[in-house]
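Hi everyone,

Forwarding the result from last night's run.
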Amino acid sequence: MTNTLHRFGNAESFRDDYVVFAIASKGKNDRDALPKLRRFLEIALEYKPVNLGDARHGGALRPSRNVNPLSHWKRDLKPDFQAVIQGLDTPTTCAAVFDNRPAAEDFVKRIKEEDFGLSINISTSIDGAEQCCHYAGIPRHSVGYSLGFEGKTEKLPNSQVLMLSTMCGHGMISHQLARKMIDWVKEGRRTPEEAVTYLSRFCSCGIFNTSRGKRILLDALHQKAAESPIAAEHEK
């Protein structure tokens, strides 16, 4: 069971979303886990992740106290993977996020060969996780499902807002912020690339997938274009 199970979307929506965790067991194998977790993150870099996460300090895009209104236009949008690796100072949950299955499969196979003795979890669609396990030559140990939302679901935000906000399993990306980024992209005030960096900085454990986020924002932009009066007239 991991907090990434609550990512909203159908199986197809996770085609570019693979989160691989490494977790030590407190009192069992955490005493010598720190160098293994750091090595886990270092190896992940070889397979070009879109994010790395340390549950204590965050991901490769982090908030800063030294910002001002002008920062929105000149802030560095490049993820700092080395900051995650070098900042790891205590055993915690570490994660590597990939936006394609071949990279996730190769990484899982490599981690199996490294045999760190840590718990390794894969969070994606069931089929995607099965493929990663099959490629690495290991049977699936178990599976966890999120049962989704219950109750008055008509009061929930739309699916695009939910897909963006639930990519932080700790609920640190608010529905209102996700909705604002969608609106800003539609209005041309921010590019999808800029918008996802804003969202990613709020994810405290570093599991936000910027590639999936950009796709969701682009889908919202294309949807707006298709619904515009000019597009409707053109269809006639």
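The longest strand covers residues 18-23.

Cheers,
N.
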